């Protein structure tokens, strides 16, 4: 190679670098590199996290988070130059979702997963897509009015959810002495409440609202007034994949800025949704409005 | 790798304490479930072989039902469905059993009856494996049907099937993990709990795997001891054929009056 040729090659490589140093270069994102080499993206979804991510009437995954992910898939198609990118759906539950992200089985989890510091040591999250609070759901005819009434009763939480720790904390702090049972998933926790095995079910308010709306008789269930911490949800992917995170956050931030995000929100939270055309009637909260104005993945 | 197990949990214990408590439930479920399974299994297994058509049909129905429904589904039926089809007051009483007993008893009944169906089939096989001459000899001695079963057939059949019962012992303690689906915090559930709290999935399940493996080996050794103790002389395995003297001696003991031993 002559001297001038070497200078040329350096110059041309610089030029190439300049062209592809966008927000997400596939070169510096292991996830994008994997998607590209497989020619497919694998989306993790939940089966009963209404309205974020659940199985619709035809047993296909639908929901708010999956709509957000659809926009991300479109962007990835453009980034990777694979218009015919295949999308694989893998059902995940609250216990296996993090291991499946870590092992690379799932590229991005489009569920209703809370972002917290402990989890950030294992995985990364997008900017917040929702804000919720853990609350108690009880039967209306149980006569329970406040969390204090749960003294000595049996309450249910879902194995592997944040509520396990919250319920234990509330129990210890307020000296309520209730028994905590743990069911396998939200559907089963809800069944425990409905069949009278447990007097109350603690979970994030929106998930409870979803289960309540889908119940045969939604009015038979009520929330207790107490709400606990603020919980920020996000889409979840491999830890430390800055390139991929930049792409996902960019798609979400643009949707939030353009008003598209709020349209999607209204579709799932304030209008009738499948499978039973129930309306969750869960309008935008102050906290989420703030996050739409200033997208952020910060947690309290 | 297992250092995390010694860390403090949110409720002031160590993670290893969670595993130990899970192990306790696993062992309790397997131990008591086994005795239910063995008692019911022997009775149903005998029922499969009797002359009485009605009894044999009932025993067969039992085996077909409990053996052919997956244990996970049975667990669900016992826990969620049974209280709903019983009279309301009784159903509510069952639902009010405080945890963890409210999960433990349905799991115990479920595992006991499911495993009983499998044991029943082995008892039947053991009885059918005996030479016909055994029954004929018992009749010749004037033993009634009951006495024939009680003193001739069942003792021999049970001694024959000990090796295959070993796998049922292992099966019942492995199936205890299904109880996590109805909220019993046994070993696997606690491993899940630890992996949720620490996100050290491989550590949590690795520890649980080692415990299950240790249990399997202990169960196997225990059954092997029982097998050696009660084996019918002369039905030894090939490796024992190398030492026929032992079985020979066993046959000799008590089979001859002392005086004759001396004469020999």
Spatial shape of chain A:
globular
Our measurement of the CA-to-CA distance between the termini of chain A, rounded to an integer number of angstroms, reads 57 Å
Instruction: Please report the total strand number of chain A as a whole number.
Output: 16
What's the assembly state of these chains? heterodimer
Spatial shape of chain B: flat
H-E string of chain A = HHEEEEHEHEHEEEEHEHEHEEHHEEH
Explain this structure.
By secondary structure, chain A is an alpha/beta fold. Chain A contains eleven helices and 16 strands. In chain A, the strands form four sheets. In chain A, strands 1, 5, 6, 7, 8 and 14 form a six-stranded mixed beta sheet that branches. A five-stranded mixed beta sheet of chain A has the order 11-10-12-9-13, sandwiched between helices. A three-stranded antiparallel beta sheet of chain A has the order 2-3-4. The longest helix of chain A is centred in the N-terminal third of the chain and has 18 residues, at 3-20. Chain B is mainly alpha-helical and 264 residues long. Chain B has 13 helices and no strands. Chain B has helices at 15-49, 53-68, 71-85, 88-95, 101-129, 132-140, 145-160, 162-175, 187-198, 201-230, 238-241, 244-252, 258-263. In chain B, helix 2 crosses helix 5 and helix 3 packs across helix 4 (88-95). Chain B is flat. Residues 249-264 of chain B have low confidence and may be disordered. The chains are: A alpha/beta (300), B mainly alpha (264). Chains A and B meet through helix 4, helix 6, strand 11 and helix 7 of A and helix 3 and helix 9 of B.
